[in-house]
Each structure stands twice: as C-alpha cells, then as structure tokens.
Design goal:
The complex is a heterodimer of chains A (172) and B (685).
Chain A (H helix, E strand, L loop, with lengths): L1 H11 L5 E9 L2 E6 L3 E6 L13 E7 L2 E7 H4 L12 E9 L2 E9 L1 E9 L3 E2 L13 E7 L2 E6 L1 H9 L5 H5 L1
Parallel strand pairs in A: 2-11, 5-7
Antiparallel strand pairs in A: 1-2, 1-8, 3-6, 4-5, 6-7, 9-10, 10-11
Chain B lengths: L4 H28 L5 H21 L2 H18 L7 H22 L6 H16 L17 H4 L2 H4 L3 E8 L10 H11 L1 E7 L17 E7 L4 H8 L6 E7 L8 H8 L2 H10 L21 H25 L7 H26 E3 L1 H4 L2 H12 L3 E6 L4 E3 H22 L3 H6 L6 E10 L2 E8 L6 H10 L11 H5 L23 H10 L3 E7 L3 E9 L4 E9 L2 E6 L3 E5 L6 E4 L3 E6 L2 E7 H5 L12 E7 L2 E7 L1 E9 L13 E6 L5 E5 L1 H11 L7 E2 L1
Helix pairs in contact in B: 1-2, 1-4, 2-3, 2-11, 3-4, 3-5, 4-5, 12-13, 15-16, 16-20
Amino acid sequence: MSTAKTTAGADKSAAETSEQYLTFMLAGEEYGVDILRVQEIKGWDKVTRIPHTPDYVLGVINLRGAVVPILDLRRRFGLETIDFGPTTVVIVVRVMNGLTERTVGVVVDAVSEVYNVDAADSKPPPDVCGSVDTVFVKALATVEEKMLILLDIDRLIGNSIADEVSPGVAAA
Amino acid sequence: MTLDPEMAEIAKVFFQESREGLDVMESGLLSLGATADTENINTIFRAAHSIKGGSATFGFAEVADFTHGVETLLDQMRNGVRPVTPEAIQTLLQACDCLREMVAATEAEKPHDKDRIAALNADITHILGEPPNQAPTPGAPSGTADAAAAQPAAANESSGWRIAFEPVVDLLRVRNEPTRMFAELNSLGAFTARADVSRLPPLDELDPESCYLSWNIEIAGQIPRARLDEVFDWVDSRCRLDIVPIGSCAPLLPEPVASAAAPLPANLAVAQRGPASGAPVQKTAGESGSIRVATEKVDNIINLVGELLITQSMLSGFADGIEPDDLDRLRQGLSQLARNTRELQESVMQIRMLPISFAFNRFPRIVHDLSRKLGKKVELKLSGEGTELDKTVLEKISDPLVHLVRNALDHGLETPDRRLAAGKHESGTLELAAFHEGGNIIIEVRDDGAGLNKAKILQKARERALIAEDQDLSDEQIDNLIFMPGFSTAEQVSDVSGRGVGMDVVRRNINDLGGHVQISSKQGVGSTIRIRLPLTLAILDGQLVRVGKEVYVISLLAIVETIQVARERVNTLAGRTEVFRLRDEYLPVVKLCDQFGVEPDSRNATDGLLVVVESDGKRAGVLVDDLLAQQQVVIKSLESNFKPVSGIAGATILGDGTVALIIDVPDFIREAVKRSGGAVTAHAA
C-alpha cells in the first residue's frame, strides 16, 4: 500500500521532484519502471508451465513460498524471441490489481541503470511508440541524450493477466 | 450514516457481536417453548439489551428503537407480568430475523425494510397492548432480577433524578465513554452535570488514559428509573453509582445500587460482551477462553509452516545422497524434525478449526419453522457438535446441509397421520451427526421417514433418459440417482423443495470441497445421507504424477485406483476418443498431455498409467506417464498473484523447490468432456 501511495503522491508533485526509474533492455530499446515497484531482480530459472494461458505467460515459480507468475516481455510486445542468455533476468515487480497487490516477474534481456528522471524531461508518448502500445507507456523521457520508455506497469501487467490484448499489440 | 474510522472499527465489533447476540436470542427462544425458565429469558433479554445499547451508542436509531420494543416485551416476560405464549415466541423469532437484516443493512449502509419493521412493531405493540398478568404472585416464575420491577411504583415516577457517578480509574481503558452516556442522558431530559475534579492528580502524574473525574448529575423530567439504569448498565460494575429522585430526601437505600448490579455475574458478562469493550482486557468466568483471530494472520502462519514442511522434505531428499558414518545421526535428526514439523502443523491448523456446532446451530430454528409450515412433528437430534473442521469448509458446507435438512423434512418425514398409519411414532426423528473417521469428517443426516421410493426414482430416471431403459442398477446406485442434475421426485413443486435443482448442486458443492456424498435408504424405514469431507482445505493428500517433464498433483480423495490397461481393453470411439473397459464399465481416457498441452513420453494409453478418478459421480481414466510419491501438499493459490485457471485448483511447492500444479478433478473432467465435443460423456458411476 505504501508503494501505491508514494507513487500517487509523486505523480501529483511531479513538477518539483524527480522519480527514480530502473531501466532494462528489450530488443535494443531501453524501458523504465518505477523503482519503487521493483521488489527484486533474479536470474532466470526453470518455470512450471500453466495450461490454457497465452504464450507470453511462461509459467510460475516459487518465490520464497509464493507462487509467482513469470511473463516474457518480448512475447508480450510481440517482439522476436531470443534464447535466454547470461544477462537474461527476471524483474520481480509489485503491481496493483484493483485494491490488492500482485507480485509478478517479467523476463527482460538485461537490466541497465537506475536514473533520476525529472518531470520536466518526460513527455507524454506519441500515438505510435516503437513496438509498444502507447496505453502501456506512461511517458517518454530523455536522460543523458538517451530516450527511455517509461512503462505503466500496473496497466501492462493487469492487461496481460486479464488477457485483454489491445489492438496495437495484436497488430505488432 | 457514516462514522469516523475509529468508530467504524468498533462498530464492526458491534455488528459481529450483534449477530452473535441474535444467535443467542434465537436459540434461547427456541428452547423457551419447552421450558419457560427465568434464566433463559434473562439470557435472551441480555442479548437484546446489548444490541439496543450498542446500536444507540453508535447512533443506529432504527435498530435501537426496534430492539427497545423487543426488550420491553422480554422484560415483561422475565418479570412474569406477561405470559410466554407460542405466539409471542413466534413474533420474537421474527423480530430476531428482522433485526438480523437490520444489522446487515446498517453495516452495508443500505436502507431498512420499513414496512416489515412497522408490521413487526405493530405485532409487538399488540402483544404489549394486551392486559398483562396480575402482579407477580409469590411463587410466580420471577427471578432475582426482578428487584428493579418490584420496587415501589413511586420510585419509578419522579420529576427528576440526581445521580452521583464515580467511575473507576480504568473506565476508559475498557472503552466506556462517559460523554456518550451523557449524550444519551441529555436526550432523556434537561441535563446538567458537574464534574468533581478532586481525584485529579498533578499533571506530571496524570495518566491520559485514566479517568479521574466523577460527576454529580441532575436530570429533570418524567423518566422511568429503568431508562437510567440502562444508560449505566455497561458501567455499573465499574463505578459507584447513586441514583435518587429529586425531592426525595429519603436516605439512599443500598437496594437500588444492588438492583442495578444484580445479578452481578450476568451483568458483568453483558458489560464484557458489549460492543464498547474492544480489547479483551481481562477474562471473566463466562468466556470460553477463545480468541478472535483474523483469518489472514492464521493463513500467514500456515504458510510459514508449509515452508517448514518444504525444507524438511528437501533435507530428507538430501540425506539419501550422503554416505559417511554420521548418516544415522542425520537420519535421526531428520525424523525428529519431521515429527516436530507435523506436530507444529497440526497445532497451527487447530487455530482454523471450529466446532461444527457453528453450522448445526441454525437447524433447530429451521426445523422449528419448517415443521410448523409443513404440519409435521419433528424431533431434531444433534450429535458430535464439538467435532472440529476447517473454517472455510464449515462455511461452505452450511448451505448444502440446509438443503439436505429441508429435503429430509419435506420428502423424507411423513405427516403425523401417515406415520401413525405406518405404525411409527407420530413425531419423526431427524438426526444430524458429525464425527471423525480416518482423517476425514463425516456428517450424517438421518431421518426415520419414508425412505426413497426406488421404483419411482427408477421410473423418473428412465423418463428423463438419465439411464438407459434396460440398465440394471443396484439399490445403492438407484438411490444415488437423486444426485443427477435435473432430478426431482417431489410430486408437487413446493416452495420448500422440489425444483429439481438441488441435490446435484449439493453434490457439486461437496465435491468442490474435495468431499464426497452418498445416500442409503430403506423404504419405510428412513434415509441416511453421508457426507465425507477433508479436515482442511489448506493441505491435501496428493498423488504426484508425471507427464513428460511436468509434475502434477491429484487429490487422493478423487482417485479410485490406478491401472495399466492391456491393448485389447482400449477401443476408439468415433475414431478419436478412446475408451477403456474397467471390469463391467467403459470409461473415457483423458490424456493429461493433450488437456494441458505438454509433451509426454507416450500418447499411447497402453504405455502409461491410467489414474481412474471420480467426481460428480463421473469416472474417467487420466493418462499419465508415471506415478511418483504420495505426499501431503500445502495448497497455494494461483489467484493471489495470477488468476484462476480452468482445470487447476492451485499450486504447491515440492521438496526440490519447484512449483507443481494441483489438478481440479471435477473441473478437469468437465473440461475434458467439453473438449471432446461431447463425443464421450464420462461414465456415471
């Protein structure tokens, strides 16, 4: 709960504060998630498959006694899949699902940096934004001459689990 | 109405306790029919009184007003000025129902059913309007609690009262709030209070949570003494209280004080149970030593213990690989760890266990109402009420049980004249029994009624094409046909039962709990319905099965047997669905690999093993590559971080730390039948 509050508060006062984002690489693009949502980063490990689920749901793992689903972001965004390598990691995030909190792992190519992003440096996303449907993009930010795609992780995960594949993603 | 958060928290306790109070009233009223003893009426009265006081404190005026009428009637009954008639009991029972709804509506902040409240109020007023009994004669059923009523009438009527109220220091700690009491007094009449600060210590010694003040209160108006007693009722054991009529200079008798406090232990219990007493500050004699624990906390402990089990099974696996001499010691330590873990687990699970009386308690009322309605005489016998089972199982078994009891009353037991004609006692017996049997809970619903009419069931089943015309069935199989969907033998559809939905729903509910239900019956002698339930939903006795590289868990309760079939016993239907012959029946082969889309060692039914599972009375053979260990598994929810998945009841963590999915057998079979396009229906057992 405190996480959610912090984020909400930060949104409102974004004008004078900066937020920290953990960034990761996915098919050459750099994405950012609110660092307060990140619970941990762990190496890729074997998962238990779940039947009757979309291909981007790789399965579930045991995270200290909790059964946590693992999503493949490349598949989720309709990107070309690659073999998992030594840099492949699972970012475990906590997302809000209505009033309850879910813990979910997402597989990305590699983690990159932690950046302070000033509100002034981030812009609302254009209608078309790389391979990602813009509804999942909170903002685009420029840091050190690089573009970061800041994800709305609640919406992305919520949508993925509810099987609501939006048109933009389906087309990609 | 909205309360501030702190009050809302206390109000929650009030709602909970009101419901408990209503249960007490109800069971009291039901036993009142037989014996009108004073202690019983007192119990009912106190429950009503607590609800009234609580609702007034929180400002739920409708509830308070309504309860006031009920309380008045009860008060007259306990004082012996009003006879205890069946009609009055019936009205009071209805009032209980109404109050229960009012409490629910208040909690949900929904409007009350005003018509119903008004109608019941009119009923109560009507009863109250009847001429009361003569003043209680010596020997009339009046208890010690009548002291207040027996006071001279003059003391009850006065132009005002002078009250000296000196609470004990810890008044506030037991969540009594003088200002609320004053507010209530203020609503009774012109009210002035003078605080006496003489007990106030110097500031540096002052404990902010203690109450050092005492008050001298004057209140004007024609106020019955009883109303004042009510205001102070919750605190009367925690204060020095003198109430004298204004203008009366008679020295205070000790008696009024005593009357406010008598009977002391009982009133004390009321004060303890009152909504204002939040934290259990101290134990009183009446408490059963139980605590109210949030289910969430308990679940947390259960998770931890589950982890401990996992560690232990991991260690056991690791021990198998060690060679040196201290292997024995390691094994010994491990077996001790295993024992400790199991014990810890059992004791922790106990926290979730509740006696089945929680479910049984509603039946006296249901049977009372229903037998009146149906014109039958029924004696209800309960046994094994102390048998404990998991809270969740308990909650989910209540509705199916109600259904079975209603059925037994409506269809099973005969009317008195028919019973007499059959040479039985005119009142039928309905028995509810619960007991343990080999790690399971058995609940039996027995009646000595007419029993099932096998010929009629068979005829109905054939009419509805539930079975083939020429199919031979054993008596037991015929009886269990009533659990088939769309089956009802009631000649007339009544509002009690007989809509043809029901028994199949009962069976499905019980199956969903991992349980099993069956019926046996003898025509003219009676029927027995036997429900077998697992002790808990948090842990399951599982059979681990392997398909390719995946491991799944199947509940042992669902497994009938596991077989390897010979080639000649497997046939193909319509070129795609396989069936196999198990003794005298044909069962469909459900390939786990196809259902769940995993790569198996072999798709050939004769290469692997067929796990014969049963659910909803349907059987099927589930094809797996291999059977692994049988073990208890801790059920973890998939939903908490993901979502429900069809065919999967949950997940568990195996000794090696990997996750294995638990197969939801009923859902799995339904799904398999659906996927085969209905080409094959699982065989009804």
